[in-house]
Design brief:
Distance between the termini: 33 Å
Low-confidence stretches: none
Shape: globular
Strand content: 15-25%
Number of domains: 1
Structural class: alpha/beta
Order of helices and strands: EHEHEHEEEHEHEHHHE
Radius of gyration: 18 Å
Largest sheet: 7 strands, parallel
Oligomer: single chain
CATH class: Alpha Beta
């Protein structure tokens, strides 16, 4: 894929990984459809893309709302005339143990705690992937869908909901690669390890130190290292149906 001739949509584009992906792809000349629920954060990302001289439009949408997702991707094609790529990046964390029993006190992960993460991370990825694929097919674009998974897909203490969602989005990517190849559409996933984001920065220094000691390269990953992998996947037309682990060698 020649990014200079492409339009790429990014969900969760308002901050962190999504923002760095947008800036990296803008550097490569891609036009961007920036999707998030946070209008103010989206404006910051849009301004950064505009400074690089590319067209970037913002779309306020809840990825769990089917009607909003359908309308958003229809609007993207109306505004740009095409859609060539999607990065399914929007996601949330609501960590907690499945059950915890101490003395006479019992706590459980609530159904709402579980479903809220599944709704955003998995259902949102499904809806956006479906609508992006439909638009690519109808406009006869040879595109690509990238799902952001996680090394937690292998299972991680306190992340029943998150791990399940990230295992599922990796499987969606490998399934879509098989289903959509007939239309010239590729799909893949990236499974980041622990990445230095605003969310990670909220951890206590001693917790960060312990965490980094577990990572063979000795540090957390940087957002640009994930973004550069996104760029690589778009530009290498022979990568399809794979989950790329970018984790510094850590294994959950």
């Amino acid at each position: 894929m020649n990014l200079r001739e492409s339009v790429v949509a990014i969900t969760g584009a308002g901050q962190g990984l999504g923002q760095m992906m947008a800036v990296t792809l803008a550097h490569a000349g891609a036009e961007l459809a920036l999707i998030d629920v946070n209008e103010q954060a989206l404006k910051v990302t849009q301004d950064q893309c505009h400074m690089l001289g590319v067209k970037a439009l913002t779309y306020i949408a809840d990825v769990t709302n089917e009607a909003e997702v359908e309308q958003t991707f229809s609007d993207v094609v109306t505004d740009f005339g095409q859609l060539d790529g999607l990065v399914n990046n929007a996601g949330i964390l609501r960590d907690g143990l499945l059950v915890k029993v101490k003395d006479d006190h019992v706590s459980k992960m609530s159904l709402e705690q579980f479903t809220s993460v599944i709704d955003v991370n998995l259902t949102g990825t499904f809806l956006c992937g479906r609508e992006a694929a439909l638009q690519m097919i109808q406009t006869k674009r040879l595109g690509m869908i990238i799902n952001i998974s996680s090394v937690a897909r292998a299972g991680n203490i306190g992340q029943t909901n998150y791990a399940a969602s990230k295992a599922a989005v990796a499987t969606l990517a490998t399934t879509w690669a098989r289903e959509l190849a007939r239309y010239g559409i590729r799909a893949a996933a990236i499974a980041p390890g622990v990445i230095e984001t605003p969310m990670a920065a909220q951890m206590k220094p001693e917790a960060i130190e312990r965490l980094e000691a577990m990572i063979p390269v000795g540090r957390m990953g940087h957002t640009n290292e994930i973004a550069s992998t996104v760029k690589f996947l778009f530009e290498n037309d022979y990568v399809n149906g794979r989950v790329i682990e970018v984790d510094g060698g850590i294994r959950m």
